[in-house]
User: What shape does this take?
Amino acid sequence: MTAPLRLHYAPDNASLCVRLALAELDLPYDTVLVDRAMRAQKSANFLLLNPNGLIPVLETQHGPMFETAAIILWLAEQQGDLMPAPGTPERQYALQWMMWLANTLHPNLRMIFYPDQYIDGDTAALRQKAGARLIAHLDVLSASETTPWLDDEAASAQACYLGPMLRWAALYGGGTTWFDLQQWPRLHAFARRAEQRPATLNVAAAEGLGPTPFSAPSPCDPPEGSAL
Ligand SMILES: N[C@@H](CCC(=O)N[C@@H](CS)C(=O)NCC(=O)O)C(=O)O
Assistant: This one.
């Protein structure tokens, strides 16, 4: 790594997934706060880094990179074992689930959090439909036999991505009681394991996520910036 990595982040935003990967890999990095209260993600300077106006961006020695899953996969190529080796059956399924997290679960959550970015007018029906779809997605994930990483002690790229999404689903999907992670014992056990990892404890402290950030999240209380 020739230049320091620089993560443009806001507390409890998608940058959290990248931060977890950086921490798991023990890679040094700097952070730059994106001030969401000022909509800094839509500022001219930020749009030069990510023309989509979305957090996160990771600046590498090659330039700024956006898209959470791509960044995590790129980091996994640099060092460590967040992804199985190329050519293995384990990698086939790890890639499958990374794309599912990025293309299915994450966009579904975005429709719940930002419905007005998807339709004009009354957004209640969209949020309700996306909420029901989220439940169905978690049913699929929980029942899968190609997800050994859900039951694994070890860190993985998928775990870095999923942990925060379970948190956001509970916190920002309509209050902490709109769904109960314990309805999926396997996902709940995953969340309990993931939130006790040293890397998660460090990142949770840095972003004020509380003691049970994935299994029983409370609103974040960050030392700087804001989640929304
Ligand atoms: N597909 C993008 C989505 C990122 C995303 O949704 N970021 C949110 C924060 S969690 C954001 O920037 N929201 C602000 C906005 O939509 O203006 C990725 O995976 O990086």
Q: What stands out?
A: The first helix runs from residue 15 to 25. The pocket of glutathione is lined by residues 13-14, 41, 53-56, 66-68, 106, 110, 114 (CB under 6 Å). The helical segments are 15-25, 44-49, 68-78, 89-113, 124-143, 157-172, 185-195, 198-207.
